[in-house]
Amino acid sequence: MTDTPHETLANLLSEKRTFPPPPEFTRSANVTEAAYDEAAADRLAFWERQARRLDWSREWDRTLDWSNPPFAKWFVGGELNVAANCLDRHVEAGHGDRVAIHFEGEPGDSRAVTYAELLDEVKRAANTLLELGVAPGDRVVIYMPMIPEAAVAMLACARVGAPHSVVFGGFSVDALATRIDDAGAKLVICADGGFRKGKPLPLKSTVDEAVDRCPTVEKSLVVRRTGQEVDWYDDRDLWWHEHVGSASGEHEAQPFDAEHPLFILYTSGTTGKPKGILHTSGGYLTQASYTHSAVFDLKPESDVYWCTADIGWVTGHSYIVYGPMANGATQVMYEGTPDTPHTGRLWEIVQKYGVTALYAAPTAIRTFMKWGEDVPARYDLSTLRVLGSVGEPINPEAWMWYRQHIGGDRCPIVDTWWQTETGAIMVSPLPGVTETKPGSAQRPLPGISVDVVDDEGRSVPPGDGGFLTIREPWPSMLRTIWGDDQRFIDTYWSRFEGMYFAGDGAKRDDDGDIWLLGRVDDVMLVSGHNISTTEVESALVSHDTVAEAAVVGASDPVTGQGIVAFTILRGDVESSPEHLKELRQHVANTLGPIAKPRQVMVVSELPKTRSGKIMRRLLRDIAEDRELGDVSTLQDNSVMDRIKQGLSLGQDD
Ligand code: WT7
Known about the structure:
21 helices, globular
């Protein structure tokens, strides 16, 4: 790379709108400005105080051992049981009747599970794991739809000290087998199937095929969800309802070391085999629970929290299972998709349960924009008090739409930056403290040392762009890549001396607030200038005809790379050559002539991974008129054909 990313545009996209927290929110907020000062005065003492929010069976001797970087140990010598922190202590404190999960199934079935009921089920599942010979340290793969049993399975593993590895229920036989094999799992917990857009989809047949290739697996424990026909292997398969259903409900949780492995979660990345990100117990739970309480201002007695992520992603681990449950939250769990049976489904659920905190992804928000604001307007969303965003940069216009049409112009928005590797939120506004800005994650949380640095690792001044790094270890950091310490060092700790390299471009604005600019790999190089895909996309989305945009750099004989944009239009807008020309000009007016797209195309869909990230690599293949690369992690395989067939081109002049 010739120069620091984003230097050209670092100041062009300037955001002047700001939204102070509502005074009544600030008055009762869980966390105030003082937290930043306390953490700055003594970071380790700050994290010790947060760790004391949990129940420990044995106090730690040392807060942090960083004597062998980058291998960290937090709360050294401390012992706790993660599941007991999520369940037993709430029941012991008299909150057994509180609803833990309001489950909304995709076919419309629903049930409420209290903390007492969840604890009972987890104890029985833990006894079943013990019966099956699962010992502390043994790995268990979980391959499930979004049903309460998925959380039960995770917590049962945590309870007996068996690290789980959840594999997203939409992944193929190959992806599942690779992960089972890398983790060396002994047991797979799955379901017969799950529902997707009104139809039962098989899961067990995928497990059967994968397990045939994985000799470490001894048993499959199968939840009956859809009731569909499944092949049954008597030597291997066990029904959940028979075994967990008849197991004893007596189970005393044993404490484990603070550094005992809690889970492995695989991230695919763009190249190489998936990385098994390893998280451990004490530090992880401390930060997951603290950040959930601070960022969502969670009041366990009155809030109804809803994170729309799948349990197969880290968001589901930290902000459906561990963070919220450690905090005794009441939450909604939804098995289905936002458009089935109708596009108002999410808002219907918010209204039904009186949801107060919603955590969603920008890709979903842009889809709602495309469907139009009259859809949410049909529902009562007045219970909402804080809105979260995660997964990619949120375009300022999508942020504004979220605030206006979902948040009723009153709810603070928390744009939370973090990664599977960081385990918990790292950069985010605090809803009772921060004056928010559309599109910016703004400020590292108290106790977190995030920086934006130049090529040489020097902090950039306000107004400049560079690379996002983390200067000090944090409690919920990944401990290594499972089975590959060297890859852990090479991937995250070798780009800059003594700093964690996140792989994201970022800039600081004149107030010092942080703006995320996408993965460094996605940065375009146009006539010697680095231009961020995120900024061009946000400029396009700020045009009132555009709902969503994906931008790539395609090789160009003159400029090195030329900017090619794929757009989805709002509602019923019809495109024309004049309209496309206007869009190109709009980007030039917003960001400067250097950022003017060479070409704008209108498409009906964009290729996305199953976690909702745009696969720019495939769009680059189209833009450069190449055969498509690996499409196996695409959410929908046929989308590329539809894009190619339906392209309408807006050419350069
Ligand atoms: C990458 C991590 C964090 C849980 C879900 C994704 C991008 C995530 C934001 C945000 C800008 C974001 C980054 C990051 N990302 N949140 N608020 N603003 N970018 O976890 O799959 O490990 O992906 O997602 O590029 O590095 P993940």
